[in-house]
Structure formats: C-alpha cells, structure tokens
From TrEMBL:
PANTHER family reported for this sequence: GAMMA-BUTYROBETAINE HYDROXYLASE-LIKE N-TERMINAL DOMAIN-CONTAINING PROTEIN (PTHR35303:SF8), OS02G0197800 PROTEIN (PTHR35303)
Residue stretches spanning the membrane: none
Signal peptide: none
InterPro entries found in the cross-reference section: GBBH-like_N, GBBH-like_N_sf
Key words, A-Z: Iron, Metal-binding
Protein name: Gamma-butyrobetaine hydroxylase-like N-terminal domain-containing protein
Highest taxon above the source species: Bacteria
Domain Gamma-butyrobetaine hydroxylase-like N-terminal: start-end pairs: 8-88
Entries under Pfam families matching the protein: GBBH-like_N
Organism from which the protein derives: Trinickia symbiotica
Gene Ontology molecular function terms on file: metal ion binding
Length: 92
C-alpha cells in the first residue's frame, strides 16, 4: 500500500493535505472528513439513512498515526474515526 510521505494540517484553511511519494498531493476539507467519518457510530448513522453533518467552523485538532492510516480528532470532540490511507485517497 502507498503511504503518504507528508501530512499537512492547515487549520486556517481547514484542509488536510497528503503528499504521496510520487509527488501527487491530495487536499481534503475538514468538514468533508468529518462527514465521511468511518467509525462504527457514523457508519451506522449513514446506513440508517441519516447524514453526518459537520458543525459550522469545525476543524481537525489532532492527528494520530496508526500505521495503515490515521486517527483524526475533530473540534466537536469526535475522535473515533480511523481513516486508512486508501480511504483518504478515495475521498480526495
Ligand atoms: Zn465517526
């Protein structure tokens, strides 16, 4: 699997940028990440037909590397989602 060579968190612009070893960069908005949270709780909401909505002004406050991806902590306190690199690549 491809791993990014660099992960940049821009709280001002509210985007996350992943740079891959081939030089490609992906940029994903913080709200989009929150709304696509892959944790069991958010997945269950989406399966039930609900939409996971990011609060206005929501930001990513912390990132924890998990090897195959990363755990993303949001300003609304939600921190259950572990985002595999392949999932992030699909979102961008
Ligand atoms: Zn979630």
């Amino acid at each position: 699997m491809k791993w990014p060579s660099e992960v940049r968190l821009d709280r001002g612009a509210r985007v996350l940028t992943l740079r891959w070893p081939d030089g490609n960069e992906l940029t994903i908005g913080h709200a989009q990440l929150r709304e696509a949270c892959p944790c069991a709780e958010c997945r269950r909401l989406r399966l039930g037909g609900d939409v996971v909505r990011a609060a206005q002004g929501l930001t990513v406050t912390d990132l924890q590397s998990m090897g195959y991806g990363m755990q993303i902590v949001f300003s609304d306190g939600h921190a259950r989602g572990i985002y595999p690199w392949t999932y992030l690549a699909q979102l961008a």
